[in-house]
Design a protein that fits this description.
Radius of gyration: 23 Å
Helix content: over 70%
Largest sheet: 2 strands, antiparallel
Order of helices and strands: HHHHHHHHHHHHHEEHHH
Strand order of the largest sheet: 1-2
């Protein structure tokens, strides 16, 4: 076993394994930043105009910046926990919690983390199909006119998305996803830029909606109760739009050991959060300036249909981004189940053995039959659930609320207190505990807002299909 000092200095022996016996990690600041941006910037960036419309210029911008700072701050705490005091790596979020907190909290962490991952992969299947339908609608409106009823089902598009994910799911591990995340990062910048450009064109035309310091007007555009629930939901949407802590440790585990992983991860977090905040501010503020208090949930699929070729390209970028993002959130689930099965049945050739095969265009690849069967089954499961519950995107806010507080705030703060041995009732301890409490209140309010929104979505869906 090599010493921690040897690893930190870059492993002069030049072999192909790290200090924990695993294949040498090759991740860099660029690949980690790409993973973060892929995980954080979803197509939800295009709904931030709606969120700011509910809150208004003042509260909307303040909340956007505040949660960017909170997410970066807690991510630096989590990055410092990757290696234990002895220098041992903690390769997953659950490993980190086990090392610093232990007990029942490890199971609670796993429940929040993997529940979030499953929810996100189902949600991405639905969101990708919505963008594919938007491409079809834009082409239909262009050919037949905007007065035509251009409706089409989501199910075939979900099936196509599922088939693509079955193929990509055979990528052995998170460490091999860098090329996908870099492509996804370019795609996210592309569709966000197109959305910003189209919104700027609306602002330049002068045909803008009504905006205000407090957003939607009670008694004119919304009822008092709607204003409250939608403001909670919008606050939750903004809080969760930055939340990548659930995947942070797994991203950090891809980094090479020199320079130290925690230093590189902090830089990657700063780059990722700064970049996404810049795009969030542009999309949210310019979108709100263009559409005002009637800002749509997603102006690339709900408002713009011309120029149709540009809308097609933007939605194609969203789909490509979601294809990669699905893998970023699915790979930790794959690894978790496969590691458990390998430990439970080490003698099973079906589970442990890999076979070398020549695959067209890819050359020689190593295939595991268990990986093939299990990962295919998982993708089929998420696709079927997406087809059965097409309003599942409304549930994502609730899943985000359930996962945000423990994974982004509570566990990082508690582990930081444990690691730094911060004295109970000291000013720093009180400040950190207040941060945890405030974020818990925001999470609970956002969860209530999401439940109200979900009930309305289910009622609208049933009414539409009755």
């Amino acid at each position: 076993m090599k010493s921690f000092d040897t690893v930190e200095s870059g492993d002069a022996t030049g072999n192909n394994f790290d200090d924990d016996g695993r294949e040498k990690r090759t991740g860099t600041l660029m690949t980690a930043s790409a993973h973060i941006i892929t995980a954080v910037v979803g197509s939800g960036v295009l709904s931030l105009a709606w969120a700011i419309a509910q809150l208004g210029w003042v509260a909307g911008i303040v909340i956007l910046v505040t949660f960017a700072v909170i997410n970066y701050y807690t991510s630096t705490m989590l990055a410092d926990c990757y290696r234990s005091d002895t220098g041992t790596r903690n390769c997953t979020y659950m490993d980190v919690v086990r090392a610093y907190l232990g007990g029942r909290k490890v199971q609670l962490c796993g429940l929040a983390q993997y529940g979030c991952f499953i929810g996100v992969t189902i949600g991405y299947t639905i969101t990708a199909s919505i963008s594919l339908v938007a491409i079809g609608k834009a082409n239909c409106f262009h050919d037949k006119g905007h007065g035509e009823k251009c409706s089409m089902p989501n199910y075939p598009f979900m099936a196509v998305f599922g088939i693509v994910e079955i193929i990509l799911s055979q990528i052995p591990s998170f460490h091999k996803l860098s090329f996908l995340s870099i492509i996804a990062t370019v795609m996210s910048f592309s569709y966000a830029s197109i959305g910003i450009g189209l919104a700027m064109a609306v602002v330049a035309s002068g045909k803008v909606g009504k905006t205000g310091a407090t957003g939607t007007v009670v008694g004119v555009e919304v009822t008092a109760s709607d204003k409250i629930w939608k403001s909670f939901q919008a606050t939750g949407d903004i809080a969760f739009s930055y939340a990548y802590s659930s995947i942070l440790v797994e991203i950090q585990d891809t980094l090479r050991s020199s320079p130290p992983e925690n230093k590189v991860m902090k830089k990657a977090s700063l780059a990722g959060v700064s970049t996404t905040t810049f795009f969030y501010m542009l999309c949210g503020c310019i979108g709100y300036a263009a559409f005002g208090n009637k800002a749509p949930g997603d102006f690339l699929t709900d408002f713009f249909y011309e120029p149709y070729w540009l809308i097609d390209f933007a939605n194609a970028c969203i789909v490509l981004h979601l294809i990669a993002a699905y893998q970023v959130f699915a790979q930790p689930i794959f690894q978790f189940v496969e590691n458990k099965c390998n430990k439970a049945w080490p003698e099973s050739n079906f589970i442990t053995k890999e076979h070398s095969m020549n695959i067209l265009f890819l050359g020689k690849c190593r295939i595991s039959f268990f990986r093939l069967v299990w990962r295919t089954a998982y993708v089929i499961f998420t696709t079927v659930v997406a087809m059965i519950f097409p309003f599942f995107n409304a549930i994502l806010g609730l899943i985000g609320a359930a996962a945000f507080w423990p994974l982004t705030v509570y566990f990082p703060v508690e582990m930081h207190i444990s690691q730094r041995k911060i004295k109970k009732h000291s000013m720093r301890w009180i400040g950190l505990k207040l941060l945890v409490l405030v974020c818990l209140i925001v999470t609970l309010l956002a969860a209530i807002g999401s439940i109200v929104g979900l009930i309305k979505s289910v009622k609208a869906y049933k009414h539409f299909h009755s």
